[in-house]
Amino acid sequence: MKWKDGETMEKFIEDILAKLIVASVPVAIFLGLIAIAGSTLGVQSLDVQSELERTDNIISIIEENLPETYIDVVGEQLQVANEMQENAWSSYDNSDVMIALHMTMQARELAQRIEKLMDKKPPSDDPVNAPVLRVLENNAELIEDISSLYGDIENSATTDRLQQLMDMQNQAWDAYEDGLYELAGDLGYTVRENLIKLRGLVSMGQNLLEQEQISAEIEKVEDFIIRAEEQIGTGSEQTDDLISYARDLLDEAKELYQQGYYQQVYRVLDNIYPLVQKAMNQTNDNKLHRNEISKHLDRCEKKIEDGTARVEITGKDEAMELIDQAVGLYNQAELAFEDGYLSQVEGLIEESEKMVDLAIQMSENDHTLLVESNKALEHTEIVLQDAIARIEETGNTEAISIIHQAEEFQNEASKNRDNGNYKEALTYTRTAMEFAQKALNLIE
Predict the structure, then answer these.
(1) Which of the listed residues 261, 278, 295 is the one where a domain comes to its end?
(2) Which of 31, 56, 63, 255 is the S-S candidate for 106 at Cβ 3.0 to 4.6 Å?
(3) Are residues 1 and 113 in the same domain?
(4) What is the pLDDT of residues 189-222, one digit of tens each?
C-alpha cells in the first residue's frame, strides 16, 4: 500500500486500519492469543484494577487528542476498544479477574494500534528494510518447523493458534510489499515472538491442551471434590470454606475452558487439589479431636453423678446449688459440642468439674468455698479482660453490650466475696463467665 497523489491522510489511515484490523483474523482475537501465550505470572500476582485503570487512561488520552477529521476514520475501532474495556470492568466487578485482565489488555493493544496509526506518516521511498525482511523470512522457517511438529493434527486448539499467526504473517508480507516497512516490522516481530513461544509449548508436549483431554481433567477434578464432600459430610466452618473455594475455582476453570483459554484451565485446576486435600486432612483431625472431647464429656457426666450422690448424703443446700451449676455448665458444653464449637467445650467441662469438686468440699468445709470462689473470680477476670479486648476490636454492638453486663456481674461477685457471701460470689462470677462466653460466640 503506497501513498497516492491526491490521497488524504484520513483515507491513507483508513486503508491501513482496514488492512490491519478488519481483514482476515480480527486483531482482538489475536491479541487474546498474545495475552494467553505470553502469560508467565499467576493472575493473583497482578494488580488487575491498576491494569484496568491504565487502559482507561490510554483510551481517554486518545479520545481527548483525536482530531475531528479523524473521527470517521478511527472512531469505529475506538468504539470497539471502549466496548472491550467496558466488558473487562464488568468481568472484574463479577470477580472474573482473569477474564478482565485478558479483555483490558486486548482493549489496550487495539487503542495503542489506533494511536500509532494516527501518528504514522505516509511511507517514503526508502530502500528495502533488510532487518524486517530477515524477520519475515525467519518467521517462515519457524512456521514450517512448528507445522512439522504438529504433523496431521486436526481440530486442535494449538493448530488454530498457529493459523492465526500465519494469517498475521501474511499481513506483514502485504505491508512489506506495499512499502509499509514500519508496519511490516511491527507485525513481523509480534509474529516472531509468539511463534517462538508456541514452538516452546509444542516442544514441551503441550498437546495436553486438546479439548478432549482438558474436559476429562475437569471431570476428574470434579469427581475428586464430590468424593471429598461425601467423606467429609458435615464439616467445620473452615472445611466448608475450603470446599466452597474449590468449587468456585472449578467453575472458573469451566468458564475458561468454554472461552478457549486452555492453558489457564490447568493452572486453575492445579490449585484445587491442595485445597480439597487440606479440607480432608482437617476433617480427619477434627474427628479425632471430637472423639477425645466426647470421651471427656462422658467422664464429666459420671463425675456429676458421683458428686451429686456424695453431696446428697450431707444435705447441704449450698453444695447442691453448686451441683446444679455444674449441670448447667455441662449442658452448655453439650450444646457447644453439637454446634461444633470444640474450643469452648473443653473450658466448660473443666469449669463443670471444678464446680462438682467444690460442691463436695463445701459439704465438709466452708473454707474451701472461699478458696474456690477466689480462684473462680480470678479465672473469670482473666477470661473477661481477654474477651473485652477481642470484642471491642470487632465493634459488634450486641457483643459489647453483653460483655459489659458480664463486667457488672463480676463486680457483684467481688462485692459478695468481700462480704463473706461466698456462694453468691460464685453465682455472680459464674453468670459473668456465661455472659462472656455468649458475647464471644457472637464474634466467632
Answers:
(1) 278
(2) 31
(3) yes
(4) 888 888 887 776 665 554 444 667 788 888 888 8
144 and 185 belong to one structural domain: yes
Residues 114 and 4 in one domain: yes
Helix 181-203 / helix 157-177 crossing angle, nearest 10 deg: 160
Residue 271: pLDDT over 60: yes
Q: Are 59 and 111 in contact (CB under 8 A)?
A: yes
pLDDT at 282: 67
Closest by CA position to 332, among listed 357, 320, 317, 350: 350
The span from the CA of 225 to the CA of 277, in Å, is 9
Alpha carbons 23 and 16: distance in angstroms, whole number? 10
Query: What's the full length of the chain, in residues?
Result: 444
pLDDT digits (tens, 9 = 90+) for 334-366: 888 777 666 678 788 888 998 898 888 776 655
Q: Which of 224, 251, 233 is nearest to 99 (CA)?
A: 251
* Nearest residue to 307 (alpha-carbon basis) of 350, 373, 359, 349: 359
Q: What is d(CA 361, CA 311) in angstroms, rounded to the nearest whole number?
A: 9
Average pLDDT, the chain: 76
CA dihedral for 129, 130, 131, 133, sign (positive or negative): positive
- 434 and 405 in a common domain: yes
Q: Could you tell me which of 391, 393, 394 has the C-alpha nearest to residue 438?
A: 391
Say if residue 59's pLDDT is above 70: yes
Q: Tally Cβ neighbours within 10 Å of residue 400.
A: 16
If one compares 155 and 419, the residue with the highest pLDDT of the two is 419
Query: CA 121, CA 182: separation in Å to the nearest integer?
Result: 10
Q: Give the CA radius of gyration of the chain.
A: 37
pTM of the model: 0.27
Question: Of 122, 151, 175, which closes a domain?
Answer: 122
Expressed as residue numbers, the domain containing 29 is 1-122
Residue 303 lies in a domain: no
Q: Which of 141, 142, 144, 139 is nearest to 169 (CA)?
A: 139
Is 361 within a domain?
no
Q: Map grid coordinates 446444679 to a residue.
A: 324
Contact 58, 200 (CB under 8 A): no
Residue 189 CB-half CA count within 13 A: 7
Residue 285 covered by a domain: no
Hunting for cell 457488672 — which residue is that?
Answer: 408
